[in-house]
Amino acid sequence: MRPWELLGQARTPDGEDMSLTRQGSEYVILASGKPLMSSRMHGSEEALAAFGCREVRLRDEPCVLVGGLGMGFTLRATLDVLPPAATVVVAELVPAVVEWNRGPLGPLAGQPLKDKRVRIEIGDVAATLRASHGRFDAVLLDVDNGPAAFTASHNTRLYDDGGIAAARAALRAGGVLAVWSAWEDRKFEQRLRYAGFTVQVERVRGRLKKGGPRHTIFLGHL
Fold this sequence. Notes:
The protein is of the alpha/beta class. It contains 7 helices and 11 strands. About 25% of the residues lie in helices and about 35% in strands. The strands form 2 sheets. A 7-stranded mixed sheet has the order 7-6-5-8-9-11-10. The chain has a 4-stranded antiparallel sheet with strand order 1-2-3-4, covered by helices on one side. Strand 5 (about 65), helix 2 and strand 6 form a beta-alpha-beta unit. Helix 1 (about 45-50) runs parallel beside helix 2 (about 75-80). The N and C termini lie far apart (about 50 Å).
């Protein structure tokens, strides 16, 4: 078996260590030594884009926020369904993740950062939402492992009542909030409804038709 190769290291604002590793054709991003995401399993991330953009893709010049770049698979799937006049804003907290996507991770999702529709905003996606009243047709959040934050404790603020209210305010009329989660979360569903969203929950496999662990996508419609 080939050894794991360390390709890059970074630190989150919370002081957590992140690293990019490779074994053969597989890439894995680790957070504090624990696997956060793998290039072998990204079907549910692509489903996040498909569900989140299903309606807004029909608008003339949609503006979509992707919160969390990861390995670029959600961004690629978003770009694939949106029209040429769309704008996709990517909010990524860790600058090194953007550099990794411009480097060794780029080919995995077909170099999505080279698409002219993409705008990168380095920083907390929660700050982007708070500063973006009525800006987006869809907000796709793939930050941490969902409402039960795993990597950075401050990510929980993105999914509490205040965070949901900020996401709602950042949406245009008829907009959609789509949230990827590694687990089901009934309390989060309730918070979405309390904030005025019509809630839909989709359960998908990590590799879609090829199986893998079950993931959850929360959809809040205005």
